[in-house]
Amino acid sequence: MHGVIFTQFFSTLNPLMYPLRNPLMKRNYISLRGQKIWQSRKFGIGQPVLLLHGGLSRSESFDKYVLPALRGRKVFSYDRTGHGRSPDTKGSFHFEFQTNEAIAYIEDVIKAPAHLIGYSDGGIIALMVAIKRPDLVHSLVLIGANYHYDMSDFKIPYTPPTEEDRARYAAISPDPVKTLEEKIKKMHKIWKVEPNLTLKQLRKIECPTLVVAGDDDVVRHEHTIEMYENIPNAQLNIVQGASHSLVKEKPKELQRSIKDFYNNPAPTTIWSLRRAQRAKS
Prior knowledge:
This protein is an alpha/beta fold. It has helices at 7-10, 63-66, 95-110, 121-132, 163-172, 179-191, 199-202, 221-230, 246-249, 251-263, 274-280, and strands spanning 26-32, 35-42, 45-52, 73-78, 114-119, 137-143, 209-216, 234-243. Helix 3 crosses helix 4 (121-132).
């Protein structure tokens, strides 16, 4: 996600950043190829689901809003390096690093291909995993995601964190408090040049994909529709009355969309147009 709305992730009024924990998720630290990572998991049956949180956020932000759509399923999530409770390391905020980290988590922790649900930056990472390692991905749900950094017509001035933001950060992050503003500035720079995927790369994604965005999302509708039209087995849901914060604003609609997608990942419609064309290509 482009760095256009700082308060989206760090406002003290935003429960996506500091939600209540879900008791169904077991949480603990693990060592992921030498890096200390805070992870969560819920036991269940069937193929596993991996939740990938938004930029400058943390894994627990998905609990309240997405888990109701995943009842009975095995669910995994983790705080990416430098996010939430996971300590930072050099280069960790670049999408290539985060993609390789997701691949390592799937290989070493989940140990099986997974369904990926990614919000914002997490959606970008899910896209990149599917392109780089399609053998590890059963399906994609991309919420407010973008495939290229040139994806928005809106820019909001950078706003430094408040003292309350710093206090909340200090309560969960193993990194020094001063690193909060450093991380925000670093991520803003990266958002100006990453990600840089191409439509040709999107066309290589073969797994069923659900593309979701708010009707007032920061990501241009044209950009979202390009993703939908270029991923061969994609479905599209533009959520009415929602912004980039649609996970919080329209949780029931999102949950219903995810459940519908999992129940029917390859729909047959009465009047098939785009899907018919894709099937012939």
